[in-house]
Design goal:
two-stranded antiparallel ribbon; 25 helices; mainly alpha; single chain; 539 residues
């Protein structure tokens, strides 16, 4: 890194422009590789050098200029909030490069389209998807400035736009700019993205723009008004329809007489981009749901006719995305989501036995949430839920690594049903089944939850968990031992582990010796010795 910074700092002559651009590119790659924390100090030093470039003159048609801008975008993301310190000084140099570029003969290129948005002018080159993807926006300090950037990295656009919005937000928070400034900039960016999305017909670029939209909404989401929400939702509907149309055309291409293996590979890549569009729609909707909570419900209603058919899609990524959206709704606003229970829950239950582990896992997570928040609304589905959960638990490959997290979600869902819908089940039969599934270790969040609930049930000597004449105590002791001595320390909280030890110590002191002796029967010799030592009277 010191050598790269030295090259960057000393390469002032026109003959060194390419060398300087390559140094910037290498620095940005290193920054991405080592992570933001390690790179932050170097990134700030690099930005100081970039600021010093203001007086330099670059060749208008020099491609190294665009290499510099691409690397600059990566560094902006790495230094995050520190960008605010340099943005006003660095932008003039970047804008100068842009103006030089478009004063060249390239503007005579008929493949470049000029788009006017407000006071800003955007240039878009139609023949290269990656060039089209690069966002163009106004300088935060001067909205009339014309800015164009070309990128070889698909994610650069989201990094730049999000960084600019974040710098504006920080400027307002630190009193450097007024709140109206950030609102104006965010309105401009969101509108530009919506308009660009509407015109875009290349799947690769469409999914990049959707990712950019989501990243920007994470920063300025609370400022979005109802009218803008309508625009965003309408555009998402348009994006879904256009993607479906393109996929139909892809299917038709497979029926042509000259369709071969090479064409099949091309189609597979294009289909993957279309699937990624649906994923991006899902993450955008999750962001909106997380921001507006129940207030977003009317807008989601408009999308139901587009989203529900995805549940039956033959692509796991599409099925997962539809579940992801609805589960996000139950997660963020459980009470409001109850109105969809009759529609969503049967679909979720069907997907709990999906062939894809991720689809299965997230569907089971949705069942967990509905069991927890559904109350009487969930009651009619309890029997079917138990049946589907049993299929997951009894599958012969349930404990394969790829299936473990789905298994753990099923155990957690069963736990919630046992605790919250006990009157709807044969608890004396179901709770011991749940106990025999423990401990779980793949999904640490669920592991903490179920192990804590088990401890609570034993503390209160729940009749169904203890069993007649403490018949389930050996299994309980075995589970407690595995949790307390687990190599995976996060399978329980420290508090839960300490409570387990206290419960066992109390049982040892109050139960007949013969009962406790039988309780050690499930343990290996070394486990029994260690646990007995731990339970010995405190000195």
């Amino acid at each position: 890194m010191p050598h790269l910074k030295a090259i960057l700092r000393d390469a002032h002559l026109k003959s060194d422009l390419i060398l300087r651009a390559r140094a910037m590119e290498c620095i940005s790659i290193v920054g991405k590789a080592v992570g933001k924390e390690k790179f932050r100090d170097d990134g700030k030093q690099v930005m100081e050098v970039v600021v010093s470039f203001q007086g330099l003159q670059a060749k208008a048609d020099d491609p190294s200029t665009w290499d510099m801008l691409t690397a600059f975008a990566v560094i902006c993301e790495c230094i995050e909030q520190e960008l605010l310190t340099y943005i006003s000084a660095a932008m003039p140099f970047l804008i100068q490069c842009v103006k030089l570029h478009f004063e060249s003969d390239e503007l005579d290129d008929t493949s470049i389209e000029t788009i006017k948005i407000g006071d800003a002018i955007l240039w878009k080159k139609d023949d290269d998807p990656k060039e089209k993807a690069k966002a163009c926006c106004s300088d935060p300090c001067a909205t009339s400035a014309n800015l164009y950037a070309q990128s070889r990295q698909e994610t650069d656009v989201s990094e730049v736009m999000a960084a600019l919005l974040l710098s504006a937000k920080l400027a307002v928070e630190k009193g450097i700019a007024e709140g109206a400034y950030f609102k104006e900039l965010s309105d401009h960016v969101i509108l530009a993205l919506i308009e660009a999305l509407h015109k875009e017909h290349v799947a690769e670029i469409c999914q990049i723009m959707l990712k950019e939209l989501k990243n920007c909404l994470l920063i300025c989401g609370p400022l979005i008004d109802e009218g803008q929400l309508h625009q965003i939702v309408d555009e998402l509907k348009h994006v879904i329809k256009e993607s479906l149309n393109r996929k139909r055309k892809l299917t038709e291409r497979t029926k042509s007489e000259d369709f071969d293996d090479e064409e099949a590979k091309v189609l597979a890549d294009e289909e993957a981009q279309e699937d990624l569009i649906i994923v991006r729609v899902g993450t955008t909707l999750k962001t909106l749901i997380g921001t507006f909570k129940a207030a977003f419900m009317p807008f989601l209603d408009e999308l139901l006719s587009y989203l529900i058919p995805m549940w039956g899609n033959d692509k796991p990524t599409v099925r997962f995305t539809s579940i992801y959206i609805f589960v996000s709704l139950v997660e963020e606003c459980p009470e409001a989501a109850l109105k969809y229970c009759d529609v969503f829950l049967p679909l979720l239950l069907d997907e709990t036995i999906d062939e894809d582990p991720m689809v299965r896992q997230y569907a089971l997570y949705g069942v967990c949430l509905y069991a927890e928040s559904g109350g009487s609304v969930f009651m009619p589905f309890v029997r079917e839920a138990l049946s589907r959960i049993n299929v997951v638990l009894m599958h012969f490959q349930a404990h394969e690594p790829v299936n473990e997290e789905a298994y753990d979600k099923a155990v957690s869902a069963l736990c919630k049903i046992c605790l919250l819908h006990r009157e709807s089940i044969d608890s004396a039969q179901v709770i011991p089944i749940w106990l025999n599934c423990l401990p779980i270790k793949a999904d640490l969040h669920e592991a903490k939850y179920v192990h804590d609930e088990l401890c609570s049930m034993v503390e209160r000597l729940d009749r169904d968990i203890i069993g007649h004449n403490y018949q389930y105590l050996p299994k309980i002791v075995s589970v407690f031992a595995e949790v307390v001595f687990s190599d995976e320390k996060d399978v329980s909280t420290e508090e839960t582990a300490n409570r387990m030890i206290s419960v066992l110590r109390h049982l040892q002191q109050t139960l007949p010796p013969a009962t406790m002796e039988s309780a050690w029967s499930y343990l290996l010799p070394h486990q029994e010795m260690t646990l007995k030592s731990l339970l010995s009277p405190e000195v």
